[in-house]
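Key result, reporting period 2: structure in, sequence out.
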């Protein structure tokens, strides 16, 4: 049965969902990596496709930008479609000096400046973290594929344009990169007892003023796509 934001019928979405932010990146993955890919959702233009990769059923569906958006889609996928694991294939701004454009990051955990976590009304600060087994599997698969990765903390921010300019503070705490979705995804996985992992490609270096183009972000970040697909 369809949900308010996903048109697919039950059974049309795989147990593993790859989730880019950009709907065009979703279409790119479906076209270039999946066999017999079928459009299963296009509500609000959030394209979702289900096909097969090396004989395994896989869905790739966009999340849109920000924690409220991915929170909606992760909630409905986990709660209504029996999805077991969501792997974010997104972009991040690299913060550490030794990071370069197109480096691949595995989000072991996600700091956040968002109030998203407060909905759980916990008597303290909840730490959104990736599924350990999925993280370890990703590290091993990256080695097999010859894809260098960095494992560590991400910052999931509510602000793309931050008037406070506090990224240097997060850098000093060892945070690898800033993005806008992982913390909410990790919270939803914890809420439903499911698995989640954020794999991000460094699309820009905000402290250095280096950026990739929208087309590059859509089409050229194939290392993280291949890595995520290997986890299905």
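The corresponding designed sequence is given below.
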């Amino acid at each position: 049965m369809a949900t308010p934001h996903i048109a697919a019928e039950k059974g049309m979405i795989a147990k593993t969902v790859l989730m880019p932010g950009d709907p065009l990146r979703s279409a790119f993955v479906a076209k270039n990596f999946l066999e017999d890919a079928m459009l299963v959702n296009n509500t609000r233009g959030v394209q979702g496709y289900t096909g097969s990769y090396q004989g395994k059923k896989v869905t790739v569906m966009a999340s849109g930008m920000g924690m409220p958006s991915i929170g909606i889609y992760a909630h409905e996928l986990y709660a209504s479609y029996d999805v077991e694991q969501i792997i974010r294939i997104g972009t991040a701004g690299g913060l550490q000096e030794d990071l370069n454009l197109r480096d691949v990051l595995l989000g072991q955990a996600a700091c956040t400046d968002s109030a998203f976590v407060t909905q759980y009304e916990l008597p303290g600060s909840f730490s959104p973290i990736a599924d350990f087994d999925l993280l370890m599997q990703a590290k091993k698969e990256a080695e097999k594929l010859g894809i260098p990765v960095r494992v560590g903390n991400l910052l999931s921010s509510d602000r793309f344009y931050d008037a406070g300019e506090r990224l240097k503070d997060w850098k000093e705490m060892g945070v690898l990169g800033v993005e806008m979705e992982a913390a909410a995804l990790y919270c939803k996985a914890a809420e439903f007892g499911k698995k989640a992992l954020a794999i991000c490609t460094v699309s820009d270096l905000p402290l250095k003023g280096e950026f990739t183009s929208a087309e590059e972000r859509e089409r050229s970040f194939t290392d993280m796509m291949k890595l995520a697909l290997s986890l299905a």
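The mean pLDDT is 95. DSSP finds seven helices and ten strands in the chain. This case is discussed further under Risks and Mitigation.
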